[in-house]
Amino acid sequence: MFTRFKALIITAFSASICGLLLLSNASLAANAQATAVYTIQPGDVLMVSVWKEEGLNQDVIVRPDGNISFPLVGEAKAAGIGVDALRQAIAEKLKKYIPDPVVTVSVSQLSGNVVYVIGKVNRPGQFPILRNVDVMQALTMAGGTSTYAALNNIKVLRRNNDGSLTAIPFEYGDVEKGKNLEQNIILQAGDVVVVP
Known about the structure:
This protein is an alpha+beta fold. The chain has 4 helices and 10 strands, in the order αββββαβββαββαβ. It is elongated.
């Protein structure tokens, strides 16, 4: 009788430990997703508003230089930072004119967050990226490659911060076979996937 009771207790304890581990893993995954911050891109349209200040509620577009213009703030760097960082920067500049300003910044249009797929694909063009998109997913968004595409000579063109261009090689055949998967990189806004 005692042995059976002991076995039940051990089984119940093991089940609760497994349950806690599953909850812990789910919590870690949720936290990892929660820490991913959208980076504002040139071309994005932002809604900026200041509580109780009707004249300070407007849509602003992020210019190609990465800046926005806003009343009382003047110029503010927006591209390359998150929405919360921009909100804090605007609030800090407004403190000269408004005590304790309550600023809200939201992204109205993700016009700047696009990648391009050109060459021998079925639907070349620009594609908005609303989440992390890798090279294989971008090729899928473009309808796949055409019959005579040079699949092992695909390149990802990426503009560096200094304006120079980098060509990142991508061999479709390797990734298709599950080899060299590190080359299936996450694309960044403005990347161009070239399929010769």
